[in-house]
Write a structure and sequence with these properties.
Oligomer: heterodimer
Radius of gyration of chain A: 25 Å
CATH topology of the largest domain in chain B: de novo design (two linked rop proteins)
Order of helices and strands of chain B: EHHEHHHEEHEEHEHHHHHHEHEEHE
Number of helices of chain B: 15
Largest sheet of chain B: 5 strands, mixed
Radius of gyration of chain B: 26 Å
Strand content of chain A: 5-15%
Largest interface: A-B, 36 and 28 residues
Structural class of chain B: alpha+beta
Distance between the termini of chain A: 47 Å
CATH class of the largest domain in chain A: Alpha Beta
Number of helices of chain A: 20
Number of strands of chain A: 17
Strand content of chain B: 5-15%
CATH architecture of the largest domain in chain B: Up-down Bundle
Number of strands of chain B: 11
Shape of chain B: elongated
Mean pLDDT of chain A: 96
Structural class of chain A: alpha/beta
Strand order of the largest sheet of chain B: 4-3-7-5-6
Amino acid sequence: MADMINVKINGIAVSVPKGTTVLEAAHQAGVDIPTFCYMKEINEIGACRICMVEINEGRGFRMVASCVYPLNFDNSEVRTNSPKVLDSRKKTLELILSTHDKKCLSCVRSGNCELQSLCNEMGIEDENAYAGEKPEYEIDNSAVHMYRDNNKCILCRRCTAVCSKWQGIGVIGANERGFKTNIGSAFEMGLGSTSCVSCGQCIAVCPVGALSEKDFTNQVFAAIADETKTVIVQTAPAVRAALGEEFGYEIGTNVEGKMAAALRRLGFDKVFDTDWAADLTIMEEATEFVDRFTNGGVLPLITSCSPGWVKYCEHYFPNMTENLSSCKSPHQMQGAVIKTYLAEKMGLDPKNIVVVSIMPCTAKKFECQRDNEAAAGVPDVDYVLTTRELARMIKRAGLKFTALPDEDFDNPLGLSSGAGDIFGVTGGVMEAALRTAYCWLSGKNEEVVEFHEGRGTDGIKRSTVNINGTEIKVAVASGLANAKELLTRVQNGEEKVDFIEIMGCPGGCVNGGGQPQQPASVRLFTDLRSERAKALYSEDAAKTLRLSHLNKDVQALYDEYLEKPGSHKAHELLHTTYVKRTIN
Amino acid sequence: MPATQSVQPRVTSTFVPTREYGVLGKNIFGTGFDFDIDLRLGAGAFVCGEETALMTSIEGNRGEPRPRPPFPAEKGLFQKPTILNNVETYANIPQIILNGAEWFAGMGTEKSKGTKVFALGGKIKHTGLVEVPMGTTLRTVIEEIGGGIPNGKKFKAAQTGGPSGGCISPENYDVPIDYDNLIAIGSMMGSGGLIVMDEDNCMVDIAKFFLEFTVDESCGKCTPCRIGTKRMYEMLDKITKGQATLEDLDKLEELCYYIKANSLCGLGQTAPNPVLSTLKNFRNEYEAHVIDKKCPAGVCKDLLMFSISFDKCVGCGLCAKNCPVGAISQGTEIAPGKKKAAYVIDTTKCVKCGACMDNCRLKAITKG
């Protein structure tokens, strides 16, 4: 056990392992210290100086950055809320405000802004206390999925840290220096010209309104109001695991029933579940895998559900695009089925159907505009909204979310297995596929086998699965830096794998770039990934239908329309193509 | 070690013979010990003189400091234990090896041993690099070595330590200069710069000059330095323009202490020194700018008013000829005993360049 030392935080005695940061020790003592820049192991840069505290290690009190300052001496005394500390914190905020646009009333983050709430807590009286020259920046609108408004940026650099360290991409960084420092891409390129993969992790960690997805809520409200349109909504598995956070629910609360009720009250004509298409994806992808595995096709087969990952593969591993499953991602499959099979069933012209996908993801905004994602000659999906945008719609429409009844999805595209539910978490797609593969290969068509090796938040997970004497090497990676590590080894022949699941965001879709933003005070001490994942695993465990191939509505689609998994028609509707891109 | 381009060839040229002699490289003198030197060029950022920023820069990243601890001796360059020293320190080593530690320690003061090189500049007859034993007084350096202040002007202040140092007032003219004494009198050794100022220097203007440099050279990583120094500069600018109030002075001082205590690295922590030391030693000059709207040294242009003495002017017109903006014209009234009418300055046109004053042979033009 590590050496323990005794320290006092605001007079409260705590015993902590030597080397514990002041911030962590204070948390243990029940004292919160605000932070902007700090992200454990990701952004330990001590730059924003909002977490400054006074410490006395025997030579008098002095100011240190609590987020990165280790406690190494017994009897150290820390003051986190002395007049000097509070005054410094206030000045830091006042200085930040002097370069901030302060347009709170029209800011997407108003009410959920870490700068705004800290200003309130610190009792800022004059937001112009240090008014002076203010840099003016043009808004970068060039990316498909998001914009950057540096007039709101506080230069905490969380976005650059997650881009380079979690995702291994690094298309954003600091430009200029000193007072002119600003975050952007190299050579002032717009983000849209870079090899940004649209994962949106930068948005998810931004403490203020500098980064946000491109909002399509108004277009969706307009489509709903248009009587000539049939507006059909579908929701990804991870959305129900996080939407509640926007309405005061504990992290990890599954709000599937209230979400379905809210969508119906917003006026969507049909409320479907993308989990249904997750089951459909398993049918296609498992078939593709068995075909490649038994007929000497390109291996490893790599999942293609995550459009951030797909774009990453196209930019950074272009010679591995043949390894990508040709399956469209589940919501695109669902859109394709809605505009073909369902349109025929309902007697609708696909041109008059508007498909809206509610996703935990910003890359899906990019994905729905890709080539070969239009089975009926019109885009499979018309609008992709993030979980955050859905929350905005619910609030704007005045729906009392917490008071809504629990309702079910509509059918036929609303029924899903537990295997489809866990698509939203790292390892989930692999587990769903292996459950079905086990049944097919073992002949035990209804036996549910859980694959726990793929669960958990580890960045890379590996396993060898033995099904009826056939050994299949599988691997699961989430977060693109982990994907890069795994694929580099595979590419160099250092590792042999048959089937790989990759999700672009660390922890999978539950931690997607379109999910509700949690402030540093929550992020630092709560693992969002595992808490939200629990919601999906418990939904799966509670279901009697836990195998994708037993989903009767999916079976009906094949019986009535597609013939069988991997058929010519299934390929036309449910599969896509990829391109090779360069690194910019 | 980092280097500027000009010294690179000279330094690298010593590596080749050194390797040939076996002093550098693999298996030095057959001891099995490997040691080599690689020279890296910096891009010239001031902040890269800060040790952690220097290492970050050598690692190929933007030259920005990082928090300590961990200190370089534990985790430095590429996360390996690292020692960093100034060129001057390394330059002392051969002499210490040749002459012995006692010889070196025989010079200087009790806590600051050896010698110190100063870059002597400003209002001084002989500028340049001078090496003196630690503990030498300002008076000796300025008057004996530097040859004193030109034109018989009076010593007003000396700024040591580069842009992050402080201004030393005449009362400390005879304090022995070493590390501890400089800090005690509100300055620092820093880069070894020593700039001499005379009565024609405005101390507010000097503080503003140094702040302009630190604002320019701030890396932009931490909030207090990135925004705070800019705001300090703006406040100083306001003072030099006669637009500041006494409350602004207090606000400036508060901001100085905040930036010192809260900045990430030495650049920010010392950036307020020129302001704090001048506020302490020359507060009356600040107050003259703020209360009387005057610059006592006659430097801050916005507070200057040029005027021609009606009694002294003989109407030669040299001032008008040299005025670049045509602000001077001949009046109509002729003073008693003069043949021509005196000239007058249109203050709305005057740009306060001082050309008229420099060209008046009769010293009939004054500023104030």
